[in-house]
Structure formats: structure tokens, C-alpha cells
Amino acid sequence: MDAASVIATLQPLVPGASYEVGKSVDFATVYVPVDKLVETCQALRDTPSLAFNVLVEVTAADYLPREPRFEVVYHLLSVPNRLRLRLKVRTSVGASVPTVQGVWRSAGWLERETWDMFGIVFDGHPDLRRLLMPEDWDGHPARKDYPVQIRKTAQTYEPLEVTEAEFKANIERDRVKRTH
Amino acid sequence: MAELRTETMTVNMGPQHPSTHGVLRLVLELDGEVIKSAMPTIGYLHTGIEKTAEQKKWQQVIPLVERMDYLGAQSNSLAYALCVEKLLGLEMPQRVKDIRVLMAELQRISSHLIWLGTHGLEVGAVSMLFYCVRERELLMNINELIAGFRFFPSYIRIGGLREDLPRGFHETVTAFLERFPTKIDEFEGLLTKNDVYRRRTENVGVLTLEEAFDWGLVGPIARASGSEYDVRKYFPYCGYETYDFTVPTAIEGDVYARYRVRIAEMRQSVSLCTQALARISPTGVWACDDSRVVPPPKDKVYSEMEALIQHFLIYSQGFTVPAGDAYVPVEGPRGEHGCYVVSDGTNRPWRVKMRAPSFMAIQALPYIVREGLIADVVAVIGSTDVVMGDCDR
Description:
The structure holds 2 protein chains of 2 kinds.
Chain A: H1 3-13, E1 20-21, E2 29-31, H2 37-46, E3 54-62, E4 70-78, E5 83-91, E6 96-98, H3 107-118, E7 121-123, H4 164-179
Chain B: E1 9-13, E2 25-31, E3 34-41, H1 49-53, H2 61-66, H3 73-88, H4 94-122, H5 127-147, E4 156-157, E5 160-161, H6 169-191, H7 195-201, H8 209-214, H9 220-223, H10 231-234, H11 255-279, H12 298-303, H13 305-316, E6 324-332, E7 335-343, E8 351-355, H14 357-369, H15 374-384, H16 388-392
Antiparallel strand pairs in B: 1-2, 2-3, 4-5, 6-7, 7-8
Helix pairs in contact in B: 3-4, 4-5, 4-11, 4-15, 5-6, 6-11, 11-15, 14-15
């Protein structure tokens, strides 16, 4: 099933949505307007001729100089119809994408990871916290303007509070103990 | 009468718990022995491989992606290589496809052996680990033979394979394939009818098919719940459609069903390996003939100017890949290993993303273990066969 026939099936189910065929070398790619994303996903899952019952992957790509900057990519799989489909949503910093967790539960962590890595906000996501990076991390590492090699001071607890004199006395005591 | 006061207890399991397969941390909320909620914390093994891959040339990413799912290394590199080849529009010779099938199936056996050993160990069948690691050693030796590296052979490359098969390859693999079916019988003899094992695994961690699909689980976990989805059958790659094999399934959806599915998968893998090995000639082509990607043969490098230039270009600048994106799934030991690659037309990838089956399994873990007993958590984690390197990347 190519992108045009997917769109033809979707158009009457989601009124007012303007889809766009994406270029691809493997399977159909459809650009979805961000405000119709959830309805589109619902229709893709519940229409028997499509029946995309598995959300395989959610990720994003950062095309930095371009605006809008990000493309959120959803890979869908229809086990009954042996079909694959790629949905793309364009977004940028400051904008947000609605969560599709209400359609497929597997979206939870996938969207959380995408937020963690790219800083793309998913509206209505119940638990948008750091997933792979530490909780106190600054920035979103997979963005193209995030440096590849950075130095970050290790998170430690308070340093051991001994004065230099105490430290030396400790060593001396230890040395004396060992020589006896 | 005074009302009995009950409190839930919060218990940290991991990240250094021996049965959490690496560094997974589970925060369990317990009411007595019953699990009220579980919260997995991941990311301890996050090494930013996908970010690193964007700085490397196309071919240099192969060793990186192999380090993601370190038990099923070659299914990662196979997915990545197939994905880049799809963007390049390359078609592999039949011999290369057959060797790739053989490698992928040996890798599946190797990964399932570690799963069986550790899962057995965790539920109390300690000796399983020794038997399984003994057999896995033979597969490691095969890796050493083809690449000199036992864990991450990086043998599958974009455009074919690294080099031709070594001398003695067929004999070594044949010896393993003849020996291994009796070993599977031995493993089954130890566990399949073992009363203690069955009591610990039957009706534990039950997942229905709809739930499995909803959580994005499409590998052996879904097949243990009645799914027949297997990438090798539904979206064949590397010529899997020309092989004769079945996809083992079960309908119970519990830990024991996952055990039976994986054991049966090992038997199917042995059959696939035997078929593939029979097709592979001891010497022959090991790469496609696209001069953009594959360096020219050494004798031409020394005698022809163009070949020398091409050789130099491939090893210094690498090759470019047409702009576009592709997603290619392969059936890895843990389920659908997919690779999503975006190219901007240069000699380095713009974005590499691996679809990690372990990531999905850990996401579903709180749901699978809910209202279960704390002792079952260990059995369930074992049965989902998670690899934290795959999960955290």
C-alpha cells in the first residue's frame, strides 16, 4: 500500500486534515499536520483496511539550519495486513506535539526518550522526565547544536572534611602502624 | 477491635542485583510479598552511541552498533548494513546473503544460550549456566575464526562481508551443528518437565496478545502469546523466503511459554544454519561489485592507478550515501531490531537510531509483574531476555 492510497483512506476519516506524501525508498511515508496527529493515529489503528496495531518506534531527527527544525518520526506496523507506515510530524523548539499514548501504550517511553534526547515536548504526556540521561542533566544531547565532547563535573557528595594537618597525621599514623 | 494497619514497603532492586541482567534498577512497592507497583530506572549504560555514530563515517558505525545489543551483536550490524544498502540501492550476491543468514542464526543461538543459562540460574537451576556457556564457547570460537574477535566480529559490512570465509570454517560449523541438537535435548531434559521449574514459571507474568502488541512487543514475547509475527516471514530479508523453517508459537503467554518458544527457535535456527551452510561454497564472492563502497582487490591496487585512487578514497574519505531515510527491521534474538538511518548525502550519517526490543520489554515490565509476587519478578525479567546495552544504547 503506497502513501497515496493510505491518504485516500484517511481523508474521509479525519476531516480537514491535509496530508503530504513523503519521499522514501522503503515504505510509505506520510507527513501529518500536528493538530490532526491523534485523530490520524486513531483512524490508522481502528480502520480494518489499515489496522496499524503496533507502534514500533518513535524517534526524531534534527535538521538544524532548516525551519521547522525537527521531524518526529513514527514507525507503525500492521500485523494483520503485513504493512508498514512511517508518519512524520514537523515541529520546532518551543512548539509541541500531542502524545499518542492514548492510542498505543508503547508510546510512553519512546516519547519520553525523544524528549530527553531532543527536547521535543509531547503535550499530555503524563510522565515527561529524563529517561536515559541523569535527572539533573542540562540540554538535549541528540540535537545538532549540542557539542559532541563535553566536560561535566562528576556529581559527588560533599568532600571528606579533613584538614591538611589531619590528613598528614592519618598517613603518619598508618605508616607507624604498618612498620610495627 | 482495632483495625489492622497495613503499610506498603518500597524496595530497591538493582542496579547491582545479579538477576537484573546488567544495570537495571527496579523500585518495587510491596504489600507483603505482592507487588503494588514497579518503576524501572534505566540509563546506567547509556553511552550515546547514536550521537557518536553521527561523527563517524558510514563503515565505522558497524563496530559501534554491535556494542549496543552485545549478546545479539550481529543482528544490529545486519540491520544497519541492510539499511544503508537500501539507501545506496545495493543488491547482495546470493553467497553473501546466505553467509549473513548463517551468521544471524548462529548469533541467535548464542544469545538464546546466554538467556537460557541466566534465566535458569535465576530461578534456581544453577547448572544451566555452565551447560549453556559451554556450548556458547563453540560459537565464540567460530566468531574468533572469522574475525579474530569473539564478541563483536564486525564481519557484516556495508556492501557485503569483511573478507572471505577462513579455511576450516565449514568443518567447525558442521561440528557444532551436529553436536548442538543433542545438547538442546539435554537442556530440555533438565527443565521442560522439571516440576520445580514449571511451578515457578507456569501462569507467571501472563501477557495476552493484544497487550503485547499494545506495548510494542513483537518478538518471542508476542509469539509466546500467540502471535505469528516474525520479520523473517512477514518482511523477508537476505533471502529468508527461500529457506524452509517454521515460526514457533505458544498461546499461554507466561514465562514457561516464552521458554518453550525460545527453545524451539534454537532448533529452527539449527535447521536454518544447516540449510545455509549447504548453500555456501567454501570460497567465492564476499562482497557486491559496487566500486563506490567495496575497495578493489589488492592486486589491482598495486597495478592500476584508478584502483589505487578508489582504494585510497574509500579508506580516507569513506563513501557517500544518497540523501534520504530508511528503516529496515531484522528479526533479532529479542525481537524486531530495526535501524532507522537518515542521510544528508555526505560521508557521515545524519542520524542513526536503533529500535531496541529490550527497551520496549522493560517499559512493559511494570505491567507484566503487577499484582505478582516478588519472587516472580526475577523469573519475568529473565523471560523477557533484556540486554541493558540494547536498552540504554
